[in-house]
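Project outcomes to date are best conveyed with an example. Our students and postdoctoral researchers have been running inverse folding experiments weekly, and each run begins with a structure described purely in tokens. The record below, which covers 514 residues, was selected by the lab manager from last quarter's runs and is presented without edits.
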């Protein structure tokens, strides 16, 4: 049913066209000779020839046969009977214009010619029309281009067809120049005209590229750009957008992104397909990177999204993963045990075991202060971590030594130190032959580790804990002055005192803050 309707509709349209041509031929016959109908129009109105019989007609076209008695126009089956007074034109042009009327003789249509005159060749006529028209108007260029191309097709004249095509392309270029930079619909209309005029597809692709770039420029100016619909159009419009870009094409990517429109106009078909993918990737990255945290904290998530949609961007993927690693490394001391071990594993997977060791040490060293406050058991556990995570027996021994200092009666610490070959000397555990550490060295080490030891001066306490206390309580008793320094943010309370004859306060006790 649909096919019958379609056929019927086409026949009606063809009938209307023929009727219009018939009216045009009749009207031109009544007008000046310069308005002669073309042989092409005459042939297209063939079904209306019976109505044209006897009417005065002016026709023009290219002849193929010309004798003293008759002539034949190219593309026309009708014989044209010449008058006895006919004089052969002296012009080299193959274009003639005839006046006369149509007759039917012995059941066959013939055209009885009353006069003949020479006309310029089609290329000469084209040049004359080109001079006359307003070349600033795209519609004028379209009209002239269609005339030349259609006439060239009728006469199988490649030069005329080529000239018509050039005029149509010039008209499109002029129309594009008149568009504003953000007229996306106008650019898409030009792409549709390319199809309508049967012009090379590279022009259609070029205008679609221009349209999508303009749409991208507009979208990314929005506070909350939405790229999904644009990406769908790019995928449908630009054939190379779904093809992965070879890794060795990074230089091509830089060239395109520098001057996208110019690069695309100058590129051949193969390079344009690569540009399609680069442009598609540019929009995808604009969508993904909007979610990227400025501090790099979600770098791995961003890298995964890029990997899924643009796997060829290997360097960018690695960059985002490195950013998250840098973020976590800078905060290693605040991570949980599971998090720091996961971070270390990621470094090992990348072939960077030294970085894995660094983050473990950073995490362990940051726990020394809290372990000192929590007591000897926490120090021993930290010592075991130094052994298990870093195989660092020296740091482990230091933790066991601190545990012993906090509680000399704790046999776990002394037993471990003894098993490791340490000897107790004047209250300090040292390896054989190792010089005993001076009190000055011991205090310096404690300050470096952020620990407060009994006997430290007030200045040493401030150095160890990074500044002045949050509050100070002063008390005076017979012969003694005492102060309690509270470090609320660290959860530490330090009691200092001095005898009346002493000049400096010194630490007497360190406890957890109340």
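After processing, the design step wrote out the following sequence:
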């Amino acid at each position: 049913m649909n096919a019958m309707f379609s056929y019927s509709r086409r026949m009606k349209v063809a009938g209307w066209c023929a009727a219009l041509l018939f009216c045009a031929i009749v009207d031109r016959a009544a007008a000046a000779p310069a308005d002669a109908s073309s042989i092409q129009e005459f042939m297209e109105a063939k079904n209306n020839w019976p109505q044209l019989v006897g009417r005065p007609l002016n026709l023009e076209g290219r002849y193929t046969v010309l004798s003293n008695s008759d002539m034949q126009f190219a593309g026309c089956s009708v014989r044209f009977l010449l008058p006895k007074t006919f004089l052969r034109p002296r012009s080299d042009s193959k274009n003639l214009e005839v006046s006369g009327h149509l007759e039917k003789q012995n059941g066959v249509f013939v055209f009885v010619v009353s006069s003949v005159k020479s006309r310029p060749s089609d290329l000469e006529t084209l040049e004359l029309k080109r001079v006359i028209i307003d070349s600033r108007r795209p519609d004028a260029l379209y009209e002239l281009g269609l005339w030349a191309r259609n006439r060239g097709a009728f006469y199988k004249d490649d030069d005329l067809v080529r000239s018509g095509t050039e005029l149509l392309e010039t008209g499109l270029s002029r129309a594009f120049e008149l568009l504003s930079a953000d007229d996306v619909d106008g650019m898409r209309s030009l792409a549709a005209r390319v199809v309508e005029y049967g012009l090379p597809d590279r022009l259609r692709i070029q205008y679609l590229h221009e349209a999508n770039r303009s749409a991208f420029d507009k979208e990314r100016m929005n506070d909350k750009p939405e790229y999904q619909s644009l990406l769908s159009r790019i995928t449908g419009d630009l054939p190379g957008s779904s093809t992965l870009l070879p890794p060795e094409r990074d230089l091509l990517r830089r060239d395109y992104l520098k001057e996208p429109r110019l690069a695309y106009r100058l590129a051949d078909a193969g390079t344009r397909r690569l540009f399609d993918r680069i442009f598609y990737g540019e929009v995808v990255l604009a969508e993904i990177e909007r979610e990227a945290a400025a501090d790099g904290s979600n770098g791995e998530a961003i890298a995964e999204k890029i990997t899924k949609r643009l796997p060829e961007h290997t360097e960018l993927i690695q960059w985002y993963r490195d950013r998250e690693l840098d973020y976590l490394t800078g905060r290693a001391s605040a991570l949980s045990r599971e998090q720091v071990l996961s971070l270390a594993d990621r470094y090992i997977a990348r072939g960077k075991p030294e970085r894995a060791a660094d983050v473990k040490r950073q995490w362990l060293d940051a726990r020394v202060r809290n372990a000192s406050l929590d007591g000897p058991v926490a120090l021993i556990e930290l010592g075991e971590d130094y052994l298990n995570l870093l195989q660092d027996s020296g740091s482990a021994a230091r933790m066991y030594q601190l545990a012993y200092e906090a509680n000399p009666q704790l046999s776990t610490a002394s037993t471990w130190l003894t098993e490791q070959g340490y000897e107790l000397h004047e209250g300090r555990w040292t390896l054989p032959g190792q010089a005993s550490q001076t009190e000055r060295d011991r205090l310096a080490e404690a300050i470096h580790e952020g620990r407060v030891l009994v006997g430290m001066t007030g200045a040493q306490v401030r150095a160890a804990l990074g500044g002045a206390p949050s509050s100070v309580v002063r008390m005076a008793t017979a012969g003694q002055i005492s102060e309690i320094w509270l470090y609320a943010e660290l959860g530490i309370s330090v009691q200092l005192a001095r005898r009346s004859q002493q000049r400096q306060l010194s630490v007497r006790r360190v406890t957890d803050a109340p």
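DSSP finds 22 helices and twelve strands in the chain. Residues 1-22, 24-34 have pLDDT under 50 and may be disordered. The training component of this project remains on track.
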